[in-house]
Amino acid sequence: MVEDQMYFSRWSVRAIRTPIRLHVGLRSVTISSFVREGGTSDVPDFFTDPQGRVRPITGKSGKSGKVVAATVLAVSVAAGGGALGGGAASIGGATESAVAQGLRAKTAKSRKAAHRGKHDEAWRHMGLRRIKRVARRELRCVPHSFGDTQKFFMQTPCRSLQRSLLAVSDAHDNIIAVSVAWVRMRNAGDATRLRGLVDTYGTGNITPIAGNALELQGIRFIGKHYDSRQDGALFVMAEATPVAGQPDPELMDAVAAVAMEFPPP
Question: What are the CA-CA distances from residue 214 to residues 130, 134, 168, 183, 240 (Å)?
C-alpha cells in the first residue's frame, strides 16, 4: 500500500491507496481506490455536471453536505508491454463521452433561451416538451417554507415569493417535474444568506406547489437534482425529480440548471 495525502478544496483527507486489479478482455486494469485510513469511505466523490463544473456528490446535487461515497482515482491501464488499445489510456473521466459533451452543448443553448424567457425554445433545445405548468404568487415566505429556511424567514422576511411547477417529457415519454422558486429579499445581503442556507443540504427549503395542481401523483422533491442563482436581492432555486419512466440523472441535473434561468412568471 502507498500512503498519499489528498486535498480537495475544502477537504483534506489522509487516505490509503488500495490497488484493485480488474480484467478487461485479455488485458488487465489497475485502479487505485482511495479509502480513508481506518476503513471508512468518506472521501469526496466528484463528478462533472452538464455545465462542466466539478462538484462533490452530496445528498442535494449542487449542495454542500455529507459526503456519501469514496472517490476512485489514479487509474492506470497496463497490458503486456503496452497500454490498452496501443496507446496511453485512462479510465474514470480523463475524457468526457460524446453524450455528455452533447448534453452540455444543449444545456448551454437552453439556458440562454430560458434567460430570455423563451420556455418552449429552452426545452426544445434539450429534446423536451413542456406538458403542463402552474404558477403562484405569495406575499409571505414563512407559510410556504419549512425547516431552518422557514426559521430564517421568520427573522428575515422576504418581500415576495413566486413559485412555479411544471412537467416536461422526452421522446421516450419519461416525465420530469420541475419546481422553481423566485424569492425577492429586502437586499442583496439577505439574498446571499438565504442562498447559503438553502444550498446546504438538510436545512429545509421553499415548499413546492403540490403535484395535484398538475394532476400528477407521487411527485416528491428530495434535493437530488438542484441548482440556484442570485441576482442582487433576487434568489432563484430550481429542482427536478422523476415522475414517470426512468429519466437520465444527468438530464435532470441539466433541467434544474435550465429552469433556474427563467425570469419570474
Answer: 12, 7, 11, 22, 15
Helix axes 188-198, 147-155, angle to 10 degrees: 160
> 248 φ, ψ to 5°?
-65, 130
Q: Contact, 187 vs 145, CB < 8 A? A: no
Q: pTM for the whole thing?
A: 0.65
Residue 141 has a CB neighbour count (10 Å cut-off) of: 25
pLDDT in tens, 141-180: 999 999 999 999 999 999 999 999 999 999 999 999 999 9
C-alpha 208/C-alpha 144 separation (Å) is: 8
DSSP code of 5?
Answer: E
CB 247 within 8 A of CB 167: no
